[in-house]
What we know:
Number of strands: 0
Helix content: over 70%
Oligomer: single chain
Number of domains: 2
Number of helices: 18
Amino acid sequence: MSDQAAPAARSERRAAFGFIFASALMNAVSFGIMIPILPNLIKQFTGGDTAAASEWNVLFATTWGLMQFVCGPFLGLLSDRIGRRPVLLISFFGLGVDFLFMACAPTLMWLYVGRIINGMTSASFSTANAYLADVTEPQDRARMFGMLGSAFGFGFVIGPTLGGVLGEYSLRLPFIAAAILTLANWLYGFFILPESLPADRRATSFDWRKANALGSLRLLRSHPGLLRLASIGFLFQFSQMVLPSIFVLYTGYRYGWTPKTMGMTLAATGISGILVQTLMVGRVVGRIGERGAVLLASACGAIGFAWYGASSSGWVYLMAVPVFALLNLLQPGLQGLMTRQVPPNHQGQLQGAMQSLTGISSIFGPMLYGLVFAWSVRNDAALHLPDLAIYVAGSLLVLAFVLALGMPRLPAVGARPA
C-alpha cells in the first residue's frame, strides 16, 4: 500500500468501526430500553393484571430470543453472499421503523408483533461482527471485539436509563427516542459506510440448507477446535442470563435492596465491564494471548459468581464486582480465536451460528434460573440456598475453564496494546 493510500485506508476503517460500534450500541439500547418500560406497557394493556402481564412478559422475552436464534444465521449467511453493507442497512432501517410501530401499537397483540420484528432486525449483530472481522487485522481483532463489546455495556447503561426517564412522561416516548437514534445511525451508514467484503471474496451462492440455525451450527464441526470454542461461548452466554433473570428478585430477597440500590449496582457492573473491554483487552491479549485471556476470564467469572453467592451482605456482594468484571475478557479473546479459523466468505455464517447459540441462551436461560430460584426460595427454610441459581451459573464457567484448557494453541499474532 502506498504512503498516500495508507492514511485513507485507516480513515475508512475508523468510519466503518464507528458505524459498527453504533450498530452494537443500538442493539443493546433496543434491548435495554425495554427493561423498565415493556412490562409496564404490557400491564397497561392487560388492565393492570400483574399475573397476566408477567405471563405475557415471559412470552415476549422468549419470542425475542427465538427470533435471534432463527434470523441470526440467515442474515449472517446472506451477508457472506451479497455483502455486509446492504444487510446492515436494511436491518437498521427495519429496526427504526419497528420502534415507531411499537410506539403506535394500539393493542397488546400488535405490540407482540412489533417485538417479533424487533428480534428479527436486532439479529443483524452477527453481520456487524463479520464486518469487524473483515476490516481488522488478526492481531487487532481481540482488542477491537473488546471495544465492540463495550457498546453492549454502554447500551445496558443507556437503555434502561433512557427508558426510565422518558417513561415517566409516557410509556411510548422511549420507543420514539430509540427510533430516532436508530434511523440516525442508518442515515450515517447510508452515506458513509463502505462495503467490507469485496465481490471476489464473497460466497458464490446462497445455500438455504445453511441459512437456518441447525445448518449454520454444522459449520462449528467443520473446523478443528471450532466446536470447542463455540461451546465455551455458549456456556459464557448461558451463565450470563442468571443476572437479568433473577437479580432484582434475588437482591431484594436476600439483602432487602431498593430499586435505587439495584440500579446503582447494575450501573457499576456495566461501567466496570466497559473499562475492562476498552482499556484491558488489548494489553491482556498482548501479554498472555487470546487463549490466556479466555482462561483468565472464565476463572474470574466463576470466582465472581461464587463470591456473589457466598456474600452474606450487600457490601460483600459489591466487593466482587471488579473481579467479576474480568469476565468481559472472554468474548473478545474467543472471537479473536474463532475468526482466525474460517475464511472471509464464512465469517457471516460463523457469527450467525454464534448468534443462534445466544438465542438458545435467551430462550432457556430465564426458564432455568427462574425455576431454580423459585424452588430454592420455597425450600429456603430447610436448605438455606437462595443463591443456588448463581452457583449453577458459576459451575458453567468452571466447565468453560476446563474446556479452555484444551483449546488449540494457534500461532501467536502479537496483539497491539490498547
